[in-house]
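Trying the structure run again after the queue cleared.
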Amino acid sequence: MPLRFAKNPIPHSQLVGITLNSLYMNPRQFRFQFPLWQEMRKEGLPIEGFSLPQKAAEIIARLRDAGICHVAFKAWRTGGIRQVVNIAKANPDFPVILQWTGGRAGGHLSFEDFHAPILATYASIRLLPNISLIADSGFGAAEDVWPYLTGDWSVEKYQLQPMPFDAFLFASRVMVAKEAYTSPIVKDLIAKAPGVADEE
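Done. Tokens:
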């Protein structure tokens, strides 16, 4: 989905690549990792994008020079969403992926409700054609994902216009898949985790 914004679109048959997730937990480590990642891309490794914290917005120019096709930002609060919108606005010719993680269903980085921040910022997100909106908050089953893919969640629950997401991130569901190399004990713990009750 995000690759549709690339200046030189990659043929569909070649859409195989990775987006590196760098949460900038260790700024000292990031200082030597980032140049190495750029070199890896220049050497031909299939690195298509980076997932970065909002504070790393200034490196977009260096990503572009290295041949990176898109950048992703993981937001976990309303203010973070607005920062990503401002970054996309300042770089209108570069694809930006906004990963929204609420705190209700697997969003371990956030304490905010999943819906309220999106309701408050959706219009500003959709004003910019270079943003792809990705939901990242405990999704996995088709019946969970479908209302957010169609946008019906905002119609049914809030009586508003449809507010569809462009894509979804799956973490726990993939970790427990038969093909995953996750330890069987960890798979069992994830599958048996009870979760929390919905709150209005």
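The helical segments are 27-42, 60-65, 78-90, 115-126, 142-150, 152-158, 172-175, 184-192. Worth checking whether this holds up in the mutant runs.
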